[in-house]
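Form 7-S
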Amino acid sequence: MVGPTQLDVIIHPVRSRILSVVTDRTTTATAIADLLPDVPRPSVYRHVNKMIAAGILRIVRETKVRGATEKWLEVCESRTQLKMEDLRGMSDEQRWALVNNLLMMLSADYRNAVQRTNHTLPVPLICSVAINLNEKERKEFWQEMLKLVQRYRMEIRPEGRELFSFGCALLPDLDREPS
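Output:
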């Protein structure tokens, strides 16, 4: 089970965004800060250090750069994976924070991409739809979605492919009528 310190690290909005840019790569705090231009650099460095202390990020090598030591980091996957029992053990507030962080990450990624490309991005593809599932179907649906995402997830971007942020949440919807 994920301990409270790890959980606090994972559900924090800035640290969630750091995780999203570090996942599947080895990088430095400086590069992370470059990828999150809306987050002040000192804040990025402070959060990276908290993530190292919690074992969420690990230092894989160090290099000397202009007299300073630059740390190359990667995600400790086993420390960031939330299992169903972890989710069940969370408070409603913590679950809400996870969903909120996902939405904020997608929004920030899109805003930063628009700014970097001088407003020449294609229109984002957005979908929200009510589906009817029993517990078994819900698990099957989620596994199929993860397999589909894994098929397109790569460490190195092949030539001719663009990078897209993708977020997915399967949430209970008690008030909405099926469409």
